[in-house]
Write a structure and sequence with these properties.
The protein starts with 5 loop residues before the first strand and ends with a strand. A three-stranded antiparallel sheet has the order 1-3-2, covered by helices on one side. It has one domain. The chain is elongated. It is α+β, with helices and mostly antiparallel strands.
Length: about 60
């Protein structure tokens, strides 16, 4: 049986510019906070955090 789901890819506009102006530790801390906020917002609406690569986040909902 096939299921319908929605998959969305999001990323931060201009992230590469910001990341070049920060230390690697600052960038990692920034992304950790970003992932945390995204995860909290998604879970409160029944969405799921699938994967993150840099500032790109893949999310889904069924």
């Amino acid at each position: 049986m096939l299921k319908t789901s929605t998959v969305i890819k999001i990323d931060i506009r201009g992230f590469d510019v910001v990341a070049r102006q920060q230390t690697p530790t600052e960038t990692a801390d920034y992304l950790a906070e970003y992932y945390k906020l995204i995860s909290e917002a998604l879970s409160s609406h029944g969405w799921r955090f699938v994967k993150a690569i840099g500032d790109c986040v893949l999310i889904s909902a069924e």
